[in-house]
Amino acid sequence: MSCENRDWVDIPSNNKSCGFSPYQLVSCDIRATRVSNSPGTQHSQTARAVSVRTQCAAPSLPSDLSSYIRQYKYTPPGESNAKVRLDLNLLDSDIVVNCRSISSIKYKLKEDREYIRNTQYILNLLPYDDYTIEVKVINNANDQTTVSFTFRTMTLEPYDAPVIVRSTSYNKTCVYLKWKEPNQPNGVISKYRHRYYIKGQSVPSWMKLNRPSQINSFIACGFNFGDLVTYEIAAGTSAGFGPLATGDIRVTCGLPIIPEVQTSYVTQDLLEKPKHEMTLTWEEAEAACDSILYYNLTVKHGEKTLSHDHYLEVEGGTREKVLEDLDPYTNYTIILIAVNNALNQSIHKPQYILTPELAPYDGPGLSIEVNSSCVTLSLQRPSEPNGVILSYSYNCGYASTTGKEYQTENADGQSITMCEFPSAERIECSATATNSAGNSPVNTMIGYTEIAS
To answer: Which pTM value belongs to this model?
Structure first.
């Protein structure tokens, strides 16, 4: 028997021919041979063509089913916010049937119980959200294939306005506005438009902000003391702008403007490990009103608050804070807030400082390996370097003789070999580490060269 131009096979020794697709019509030639017992007699053959079809199998679906989703913006009856509806544009011609025909194409949200036909809509989906769709296809032999995939719905305009974080008078001619993106942005917020005008006067053109950050702010000036300024601001995605955030700000006293805090240091040398005493001072803030009432000063190390102090701004009042036992080469955060007589606070502006270096508290890590005439020395960074290690100094000597002193700059983790030592001698190696503030204590190790063979 031979099928589809394949080699002849004997029946019944092998009566299978494989490698065909499901539901494929295969043409086979069958040849019968009669063998005579008489020597020299010719074989007689008869041939017959037969067509046979392979069995059905489950349908095969396209690899990227998300490309068959069609999405539409629509507003459900009785609602004001637009949502998304979709259908599955998957046709019989897009499917490898593996049988005679497709009997049904259905789909649903994964969490739904019932499937719907691919010509029906799935409704009330939120924009710019991830959903999982389950597709089920059945052919006429009742073989079925079920596939799930996840996709993101389309971007729409924001449902709501930007969130106003702060709106206040900045000084006697300016107003200050601070905002963040809407709670339901329906996509990536890529732009804002905003404007400011005196109530009852002509409305200016929009100002655009096309590279917004998570929190944005603006100072609008050119007004008079007592003016009532209206602001309008809207956030936009690639689909358009959402509703306006709007309100009024009275131009009165504004926000105090604080100077930068100055720092000075004294080293506390009498401690077991020297540390810093830091003094913080600052000039009087610009009141943006009649006067400053008080200051709040906070000093933090990471998330830990080291101090929080309240200073009244009275004649001859102190604007100074002294902190002791501060670690060298360490980051601290200073937050100074000024409050004026209109109870307006200055804008929160953390100031970050790095305390000066001190000499390392401990010497470098040190290890040695010794053979009959050589010493291999390894140096490691001190565990408390108190700054950036610039160089190492080291030497190795034997008996009462001091060896030559060496210096290297980038020796962390490196091995240094020195030779020509006598055999069977006591070898003493020492090393120090140096940063911009000075040298570390000396670390020493002792080894013995081997007896030469």
So the answer is: 0.59
